[in-house]
Amino acid sequence: MQVYLPIAEMSVDAFLLLGIGFGVGWLSGMFGVGGGFLLTPLLILIGIPAPVAVASGANQTVGASVSGLIAQWRRGNVDLRMGGVLLVGGFAGSFLGVQVFAWLRRQGQVDLAVAIFYVVVLGSVGALMVRESVRAILHRRKGKVGRRLHAHFWMHGLPFKMRFRKSRLYISVIPPVLVGFGIGILSAIMGVGGGFMLVPAMIYLLGMPTSVVIGTSLFQVVFVAANVTLLQAVTTGSVDIVLTLLLLIGGVAGAQFGAAMGTRLRGEETRALLGAMVLAVAGSLLWGLLRTPESLYVIGPLP
Amino acid sequence: MAEAERRDRVFLVVVDDSPERQIALRYACLRVRHSGGRVALLRVVEPAEMTEWAGVGAMLEEERREDAEKLLSGLAAEVQEITGGLPILLIREGDPRDELLALLEEDPRISILVLAAAAAGTGPGPLIQALVGRHGARMRVPMTIVPGGLSEQDMQRVTI
């Protein structure tokens, strides 16, 4: 069943979109991830223009993360104050990111930029994930846990200190704002929530206790990704309501299945699988950048 | 012989985050002080959420376990003060109801399960509701339900 996407200006099979939404939702429910980093490249691969794919990815991330945030909120695992500080940086970063995105689009380079961003970020994240999982599988019997470093470094000498009661921290607001800012830029350009980078940054860089990390990162992800969707809609006009609706319907259904399966699935093998999937997505985008195009010369109107 | 057997009985108290757990713990301690036995404390920690990073997941699990150990050792001091003996400390990971039932099946030392009903609200609490309702058939030991609003005076009276 072909449907016409008014903003993407192309016709796609509605069941393909529902299927993609379902698959990504299933994976995001199972692995506890937003799913934007899988959805955006998949949409690009089926021929959706990069700006529309990025906006849809951000939108999907909001949908996938809200229920997780509500669950964490009920258990009191959200540090609102830390989340607010991160959000200040996140809003600024996503605002700048969308401006950069709009500028790239005017230059006609946005597809290239998004693809390069994805190849670099997903390539390194996927490689790290696989390496970490393989190492964990090999060392499983030893039961060793990477301890955090309780070291003081230059970060702790920064001004504007603030007390974060729930995180049991008294640190400068500059590092969290910068972390939020960076994730905001990533979110705007890649259409991801950024949890895969935010969570380690919160633990290893800011030194937050792990109990509040997941909830607080979801808090940041939901609002920043929502902000990105809104800004993309206003600035570049690239949110396709038919596309996002079909993807969200599939995504919500898939997430239910995935979450039910995820509680039974555990351990390093699934994580290695996720890493391999991330690497495969990065690899296919890299191949798209390197291969010889089918038509070397294209004439078309500038966007 | 009868005296020795009495000392061997174990009161299991589930340490959750409800306000009435203190009532159950107090009841179990006083029973032990007045008529012998031991207290066992069970804390069920949530399993770590799936995250992208193995290191983060391992740290999450480790910190949850540490928190549980800290909580239990604090309560253990309290138990020792009242009963004079150290309690058995049990930490398990998973769903509280399933883990409790699994423990009762696996651990032959447990003699009685002590739970306290919520003093206010619409029901006695999810655990009691499950154990007297749908999962009642899986219980392997008798269960004592202590009213959450029991006064200290009554507590002393009924534990003699």
Automatic annotation (TrEMBL), chain A:
Q: Which family does it belong to?
A: Belongs to the 4-toluene sulfonate uptake permease (TSUP) (TC 2.A.102) family.
Coiled-coil stretches, from where to where?
none
Database matches in InterPro entries: TM_pro_TauE-like (IPR002781), TSUP/Inactive_protease-like (IPR051598)
| Compartment(s) of residence | Cell membrane; Membrane
Task: Choose one Gene Ontology CC annotation of this protein and give it.
Answer: plasma membrane
Transmembrane domains' residue ranges? 12-31, 37-59, 80-104, 110-130, 169-190, 202-226, 238-260, 272-290
What is the predominant subcellular site recorded for this chain?
A: membrane
Q: What is the protein's name according to its record? A: Probable membrane transporter protein
Q: How does it sit in the membrane?
A: Multi-pass membrane protein
UniProt keywords (A-Z) are: Cell membrane, Membrane, Transmembrane, Transmembrane helix
UniProtKB/TrEMBL annotation, chain B:
Query: One Pfam annotation, family name?
Result: Usp
Q: Where is the UspA domain?
A: 11-119
Superkingdom assignment? Bacteria
CDD domains given in the database record: USP-like (cd00293)
Q: Cite the SUPFAM superfamilies for this sequence.
A: Adenine nucleotide alpha hydrolases-like
For this protein, the record's InterPro entries field holds:
UspA
Protein name listed in UniProt:
Universal stress protein
Q: Which organism is it from?
A: Teichococcus wenyumeiae
